[in-house]
Each structure stands twice: as C-alpha cells, then as structure tokens.
C-alpha cells in the first residue's frame, strides 16, 4: 500500500485501480477549475513569444501549421541561436499553444489578433490561456497586487519543489504582468470591453458612492464604504465588513453591453440572478457596464442594482467620466 498526500489529506493506494480512480478524480477537479496544463516552463521573453505567434499566423495563412518550420524561420529571421528551439517548444506546450508538433487554434488566434492590432482582445485571450495553466493560474491568484507577482512566482514554484532559474522567474513574471488585471492602469477614458473586463475592481470602487443611496432605499444597515471585497473570479467578489472574516454579500459584474436597450438590460440582469439565493447573504450588488457613443471613444455608464437578502431590489443607471 502507498499513501499519497493530496492537498490537506492523504489517499491510500492499494491497487492499480485505486490509482486510476484517484487520477481520474484529480483530472476532473482540474477541469472544473478551468485549468488543464501543469507545466510551469516559461523560458522565453513574452515579446519573443508573441512575435513567434504572429509568425505562426502568417505561416498558417500559407498552409503551414507545423511548429518546426515556423520556429526555424523565426530564429533565422531574428538571428537567434538554433539552441533556443529547446526552450521554445516546452513553453508553447505549457500554454496550450502547440500539440504534437503543430500550432493549436489558440496560437493561430493570438497571432491573428497581433497581426490585426487588436490589443484589448489579445490581452483577454492571453489571460484565458494563462488561466488554463494550473500553475500560472495559482500564481495569479496568490498575487494580491501587481508588485507581488515576482514573489508569487517564486513562492508557488518553490512549493512544487522547483529549483527556479532567473530567466524563468523573469519571463514568467513578465508574461503574467501582461495579463494580470491588477497590472492594468484602468484609465476608463475611452473604455473598451476588454479594458472593462480587466478593471472590475475599479468599477466596484466607482460604484461605491451610488451604492450607498441604494442601500439606504432598502434600509440596509451596512455602508458600502465599510465593506471590502475579495475576488472569487473575474466577475464575482465576496463582501465582508472591514476587519471581519464573515462574508455578508456579493458583487456580481456582468459582461459589458453596447447599448442601454431595456430588453438587453433585463436579460443581462437575469443572468446575474443565477448566483443569487434568498437568505444566503445580506446584500447582493449587480453591476452592468454599458458602452455608448462613437467607436473610437465610447462613454461608460453603469447599471447598478442592489438586492437585499430577501430579494427586494432597487437600481439606477449612472454615467461615469473616468
């Protein structure tokens, strides 16, 4: 019999069948968490990685999908050593950008976004790729602030028993800084859907003055300025009174809407209702960003709806300048 430690508990493995069942269960748990890849191998600078993916897209349009030919051409064009091949391929694999010697659809898509100059969409796609890597996802979650990323990289990799190379630490942190929401400047002048997705906490802070009015209308004794939030994911935050551990509420942020059409607003609000249950928390705050105006520089409004624990609710639309 073998005892395997999983998290904070131990699993007894007596037969091959026991081991298969454990592996199956762990795979299912990883998939539920939204991550699939477990390699932490990031050994090339992010700008070089993006340059390669742009090259991969161009070659894809010419009918070439194999990584070997594209990497060889890329190294030659940039006068880089052929020995870098051995650091590039595992980096691609760890991000789900290459499988069995071929670039994946995700790699081609990133290259296309680069070629078309769609920077906001590019960041969103890169963030999704990072979250599919279980180790990188854990680092992102541990970094409470952008300045803590290097420390989080070191801490997480060390916990895996990894002897950390300087270049690996540097390039991993640089890649994560490109996609971590807390590394965004979050200047909401001329906002885009991509920027709003990365600036959820900024939206919460901007909503606070307007939340208070809605709290008072519902006779909720809590005051927004006395609450703090912690992220569950990019659109869900738990509320607690500052200095207390107990969660008293939840903030739910919807996807940005391109207009204030009444039916669209109702549909978007009802989607957020799926996370609301009567009596679980004292208050729920729903925030729907609304983009309006010319494509080159849109303006931002927020539909804020406060829902009391008994599901009584009030809402208002506010216009934000920044």
Structure report:
The protein is an alpha+beta fold. The protein folds into 3 domains: 31 residues, no CATH class; 138 residues, no CATH class; 128 residues, no CATH class. It has 12 helices and 10 strands. Helix 7 crosses helix 8 and helix 8 packs across helix 9. The strands form 3 sheets. The chain has a 6-stranded mixed sheet, sandwiched between helices. The protein has a two-stranded antiparallel sheet with strand order 1-2. A two-stranded antiparallel ribbon has the order 3-4. The termini are far apart. 45% of the residues lie in helices and 19% in strands. The mean pLDDT is 85.
Task: Describe the secondary structure blueprint for this structure.
Elements: E1 2-6, E2 9-13, H1 16-32, H2 46-60, H3 67-77, H4 85-94, E3 98-99, E4 102-103, H5 105-115, H6 119-131, H7 134-142, H8 149-159, H9 166-179, H10 193-198, H11 200-217, E5 227-233, E6 236-241, E7 247-253, H12 262-272, E8 283-292, E9 299-308, E10 313-320
Parallel strand pairs: 7-8
Antiparallel strand pairs: 1-2, 3-4, 5-6, 6-7, 8-9, 9-10
Helix pairs in contact: 2-3, 2-5, 5-6, 7-8, 8-9
Name a few traits of the molecule.
45% helix; alpha+beta; 6-stranded mixed beta sheet; two-stranded antiparallel sheet; 19% strand; 12 helices
